[in-house]
Amino acid sequence: MNQFLLQPTYEYLSLLSALIYLMMLFHLPYLGMVLGSSVLSTAYNKWKPGLSKDFINLAVGKPWVWIAFGLLPVLALAVLYKMRLANTPIPVHLYLLRLSVLLVVGLILLTVYRRTANFLFGAAGTLVLFVYSFHFIDVRALLIFPEKWFFLKAPLPYPLFSITPLIHFAAFLLLSAIITGAAILFFYYKWPEKRLPEDTPHYALLKYHGYGLLLAGSLLMPVVLFWDLYNLPNYSLSVGVFVLAGFLVAALFILTSAAVAMIKDHKAPVPRFAVVSFLLALLVFGLMIGKDRTLQANADRETFAVLNMDAQNARNAVVSKREEIYAKNMIIDAAMGENIYTQICTACHSFDKKILGPPFNDVLPKYEGKKDELIAFIKNPVKVDPNYTAMPNPGLTSIQVKAVVKFLMEKTGMEPAEPAEKKEEDAGKTGGE
Amino acid sequence: MKRRDFFRVMGIASGAALSACKVNNADKKLLPYLVPPEEGIVPGIPRYVRSTCMECPAHCGINIKIRDDKPVKLEGNPDHPVNQGALCMRGQASLARLYHPDRLKQPLLKSADGTFKPVSWDQAVKALHAGLKDSKSKGLRNVFLSGRTTGTLSSLAAEFCRDLEIERLKEFEIFHHGAIKTANKGLFGLDRVPYYHIDKCDVMVTVGADLLDTFISPVEWSRLYAEGIKKTNFQWYHVEPYLTLTGAAASKRAVNIPGSEPYLLAFLLRHTTLQNPLPEPLLSGVPEYTMEQAAALTGLAKEDIEGMVKALDGAKQPLLISGGAASNTRNGLLTAQLTAMLQWGLGMVNSTVDFSHTLNDGTVGNANDIGPLADDCRDGKVGFIMFSRVANMDIASKALESMTKSGFKVAMAGMPDKVTEICDLVLPLSNPLESWGDAEPWEGIKSVVQPVIEPLHDTKSEGDILSTLLGLQKSYRDYLADHWEGMDETWIDKGFKTIETEKITARLTEGAVLGKPGKPVTNGYTYITPSLRTFDGRSRGLSVLEEIPDPLTTVTYGKWAAVSLQAAKNLELSPGEIVEFQSPVSKVKLPVLLSPALRGDLTTIGIDALTDYSLSVDGPGGEFVFLMEDVKLFKTGEKIKIPVLSGGQTTGKRGILPHLEHNGHDHGPHHEYKRYTLYEPHDHKNYRWGMVIDLDACTGCSACVAACYIENNIPMVGKAEHLKGREMAWLRIEPYFNDPNQPEFVPMMCQQCDCAPCETVCPVYATYHNEEGLNAQVYNRCVGTRYCSNNCPYKARRFNWFDHSHSLPLYAVSNPDLSVRPKGVMEKCTFCIQRIRYAKDRAKDEMRLVKDGEVIPACAQTCPSGAITFGNLMDPDSEVSKLAKSTGAYRVQEELGTEPAIYYIKRKK
Amino acid sequence: MREKRAASKEFTVIKKIIPLLLIGLLFVGLLVVAGLAFQWYSTARKPEQPIAFSHNRHIEKVGLKCEQCHVYADRSPQATVPAVKICADCHQKVAADKPEIIKLMDYWNKKEPIPWVKVHNLQWHVYFTHKRHIKAGIDCAHCHGEVKAMDTVRQVRSLEMGWCVDCHREKNAPTDCLTCHK
Fold first, then answer.
1. Which of A150, A213, B27, B57 could cross-link B20 (Cys pair, CB 3.0–4.6 Å)?
2. Average of pLDDT values for B585-605?
3. Is C118 on the interface with B (CB under 8 A)?
4. CATH number, span A329-432
């Protein structure tokens, strides 16, 4: 796949990052809703079929929904991650592609379950989705640990079960509870299309489920959040993470308050804060994903800086290649060389004195007749003499280097200065007949 | 001298900083060099610098191991003629002297109220010159009294005294061998102590001379002794009044009545066949005794005396040495003279007794010199005294007392002692590890002293002080360079230089006269004994030496006196009771311990137990009289606890110390015990580390114990813990008195059992058997159950009951290759795994396996008699494998089925 | 009447307590987050060095390689930081007017070693040798991260035993306890 990709620049990487965030935001709340509802639906399948049906209808509906919010984001993520982790040999994209198969299987199973209300399909689908989401969340969490990336080569890397991925999965489960609860309240009690009629036998029960899920999730979530912050490695933390965590706590507080208020008023037929809860749930998801993204960005900061540097170098290589071609045909001007010498080289060099580097009169004679070697050296200086420090790369273009070399050669008398007449002759030749 | 110019390399190398004493990760600093070190110095890799140990006058050559520009271990210089790679326990411990918190840190001047005030060097020099001038103006005597000084410093001291018109007195040493020197001067015209070729002789008789303890150069004699016993016909008779390591090592030990050595020697002179005749006038002075008389006078058994006579007669290269306990009596000179006559008569002189290579102590005086000085001081005739490195004048307290009345007193010393107390000006000396110099212990050996660290405090080396006082305008280093002119530069790297000495053939002089015997001591014997752990008391203050038990009694801390069983019965003494010893001259109160090896009612007191005491002097020989007469013992009724670490006095037939039968019945390998275990035998990869300890060679000197302490950062736990039996030494010397007269020593450490009882019981798997045969202990995993120690049949495991202090300055002595164990962690010997690791690292660089002899644990390296051999048991050509298969090789308590990796070689006696 | 009052009293209690409890939880939650943040800020974020040396600039712009300054990495257990002279050699002239360089030359002129704060700290019981790892061909970045992209060096690997052992197992390096536990 590398051959299709340009070396990414910093801006490009930021764009990729934003896209990843967007895809996550599409995918995870949906996944949470599907998981929550399918668990509840399967649980109530034999006992309360009507309730069960309502549960499953919450999220698993028309196919375009699960393709748009389920499959497509995952496929997009595979590509995005690959581009973002371009310089690492980590096959994240392959991993995600494998996972997407699981996702498709799970969703198909659930769709079948929705049609047939067959307990086995429901259970199988839930299980498959459970496994899928566990893998998905944990792999994401593993990306925070660069030292564990090489484990991703294996299909079931054991660090999936280390503490931070497990905490992140617990957080995801709680968030699923929150979004499922909020979705129940919103879609079945406020959303006009899906609104339950008031005479439905499980009207109140469904409502209570919504309250319960919302309350439990939002009460337990901060605990998991604190535990997560405590266990994270220091290099992934930054002020931003804590700010987002603060906002998360606040948002969860509001959710809890809303849930409590609604529970206190549970006799009311329509939950008062259904819309707010749902929006807040989405916000909480967004904050959570943001926090995880920040963590990952902090952890991978240098990797991406290196990517950026590689990109720059690649670009420079392309540019200098072009320059080479131009340089062959251009007339090199010793005067320009002298200019460059005065501006750059004199910091460390002089012809007769030693400043930081050796005096030119001492070292240049060895390049007599070997102009190309000198050009190559200045383009890529290496440590030669143990008595002197290494020469830093002056960062000159090919033309500049050639000019400087011409100047140096003339100055030290190894090459005769071009007589003025010949120059004019040349100019005349090109300009003249 | 570019390479030696270490002043360029200032700054501290990178590494976990010692500036942050705590091990707190947040505070850790990484300090770079200021200037990169020269080629060949790599931080993190130890480098070695050769120097000389100055802890006692033997002056062994040392190899100083330097890590991060700090000395962390002293090892013997493997090429040095004196010690050849070994170093005694005092030498090992002398490293701690560098960082001793009690060290004198700056010049001190006594103010009018008697307290010392710190002053600058300029002020100190001024005060000294003022004091000297004052004394000269009054026409009083000005004297310079130092401990034994050799080499260039001696020349400088001579120059100093000459230029400043100070009398250079004879040097003060407690063990000055005055009797031997006077006797040799009288008989051979050579006022010297000869060299004894112990390794060349086949029969050796030593009378009193504690060769392996403190006599002249114990490390050297130990090495020669080990060479000697390799011969099948080596016989060694040792006659002594009290128990020493020398007596324990000898083939035959005989206990004589104190002070009766002349009788024995007279008998031997008369009854052995002399090869070189002695002149009649000389011989006539020797009394004639019959065997019964001799036995009665000396208290020796007839068989012993007969045996000595026969052995000396039949010997091709006999050797007789007397000294030590035999010299420091009223008959000291007579003993020495009789010895010299026997040495001449039996043809030992110029073969095993070698005067070409004598002890370089020509400037050392004897005890007779102190008296007149003290008298002059009392009479106010002395106006200026300069002391330099006078060790342990505690036994001449009266003399010191008189000296307080003299004029201006200056002391140059490293640590405060009784001498510095009475002085007006104290000049702090740099430790030998901080100074330049040289030493010449024997004629013909010049040993360099090199600094490896800048002086930690505001101190100067003695050479620098003297040259400043002289106004020489050059440092002592330059002075040395002038004196070393013409010497090949590489001698400093080697650490020593052998100089050709002229061959001296001693000849009996005309007119030699035998001295008169002194009054025999009849009762109230108390011997002041030299101390193995502190030499003549000068190594007091080094805590390692107090922590390590005295091998003969296993006592660690505290002063004590040993009383014989009879003396104890007389007074009904029990161990720990405090008894007052009253002699006509002084008295001292000490707790007592019962010693079965002392005969009659003899009691002994170690010389380091005496402070504020006065010993009398034997005029003719010039020796301090250690054998005290008319000593009365009085019970005080008090009792204290003395820490004795030994669990038992005898092996109790526990199979710890079997003996090789005299007639060689025990040929062949040891019994193959059946292995009762459920576990599979271990698979060893490439190496199986094992050790062989030759019990014949082991003298019990405990150098290995000291080396182990320093190498492995073993904490000092102190007296209270020792009283509870909580010693910390990974390696201990166990004395067994199966024969109450001659103990045998077994060095015991973790046996690295193949079938270890400790490995199976650790609940957290902190100890396990690694694939190279070592029983590994993972310190940070240990939770302190102590079940492993419970199970160990050898009791080789040690528990850290407390966090023992490892703060600066002594923390600097720590070996960085090994962790310092915190509280609650079990520790033990692991065959110096850090050295094995280092050798394997080096070997891996060269893509090979570790060769035999490349890894040498600290104990094996420092053993003066080479008793410990270490190597790879899987390699059939290694020294260890061959020794492990030799006759007499066995393992301790094999019948328990522990399969230890340490083989011991049975004693042949 | 009485019933209603009794009921309302109970109700009021519930009405007041639960909101208070919730607000209390909010504060506690924010406090915990603040506490964790503070703990991170004060001890664990990338340590501040006495001189703001930027690896990025020296590797990118100047073109230095790791082993040019960390000279002993392939010869010694300790990789060491470069001697002050190595920095001072170039910086006597180069960029001599910048404030950090002035700090550097200050240390050099006072003959004081720069008290760098150690970033990668191993436990007291660990013996780690750079030499063997460099000779095994492990790239510096594998354990220290992409230092060439860092302005201030920070620790980006956990340095836990499990991480070490994982790599040792993979590369058939010794996994005996005594290899690293000293």
1. B27
2. 88
3. yes
4. 1.10.760.10
